[in-house]
Amino acid sequence: xxxxxxxxxxxxxxxxxxxxxxxxxxxxxxxxxxxxxxxxxxxxxxxxxxxxxxxxxxxxxxxxxxxxxxxxxxxxxxxxxxxxxxxxxxxxxxxxxxxxxxxxxxxxxxxxxxxxxxxxxxxxxxxxxxxxxxxxxxxxxxxxxxxxxxxxxxxxxxxxxxxxxxxxxxxxxxxxxxxxxxxxxxxxxxxxxxxxxxxxxxxxxxxxxxxxxxxxxxxxxxxxxxxxxxxxxxxxxxxxxxxxxxxxxxxxxxxxxxxxxxxxxxxxxxxxxxxxxxxxxxxxxxxxxxxxxxxxxxxxxxxxxxxxxxxxxxxxxxxxxxxxxxxxxxxxxxxxxxxxxxxxxxxxxxxxxxxxxxxxxxxxxxxxxxxxxxx
Length: 375
What we know:
3 domains; 15 strands; DnaJ_domain; zinc ion binding; unfolded protein binding; Chaperone protein DnaJ
């Protein structure tokens, strides 16, 4: 026996396949020509490749242990004659992974889908249940997702014989290198469908409309997405469906403006009501309530109604309803009204008010400039 392949890899004759593979990967990382271009190292690299090709194949290993040399002349193996059959193991030695082998499945998970759903402020505040119509891919009822016409089935590809890939041998400075690529006839599936289903054209799924019930939790806001697991697109080949996301769009309310979980609105009252006080009925989300305008209320003041806002989505309780007061000054007075106001001004000593002047409010950039200059 010209070469001791066990000694080449540095393993015992009773070494397991895992031990042989680990020894080969260790030596391949050290001796690969890309790492060590020394010609002597290249010869050594060819030796470990040949040794591993023999010892990793049960039939060749058995022949070698009985005294034969499968890698020798006429043996049908070896680095120069049998090709670079351990390319994937060398890749695994350097990158820690091996290229996926075998045909790929026709069945794959479907994509996620998203639709937008408009709801009112009241529905967002308290939650609701909605019926929606969804157009998505569903399993073809004619072929049950198989993709083949009724009475037919997929057949093994005669080009790759079901492997899903074809091999090609090329020559390099290392010798003959064998590479694999997806089979062009079956696109890597390992099978072909001679007679596709006429309903789905072999895809295993069709577009259809279906109804779903969506539970909208209280407190959702614009942009909130509700996930419905498994209600999205069915995958090719009748694969598992993706998820469906329902994105909430809240329609504008004629009275209230939402800011977080608080609601805001503005009530306009005449100056007499602001001076004397009054009660204004307001249609809140909980029904009609009186807003108490106290005597002497100024324009711009706000009146909070606690717990009358939107339900907190994460947590208990609700936001507030903030009523902003705007006092309206009459632009035109009747003679009698003007006379009454003049009498009131005289009684209050406000016939010729001088007014109180204050510095105007600075903008953001002015305040930053003052702060920078140390004013």
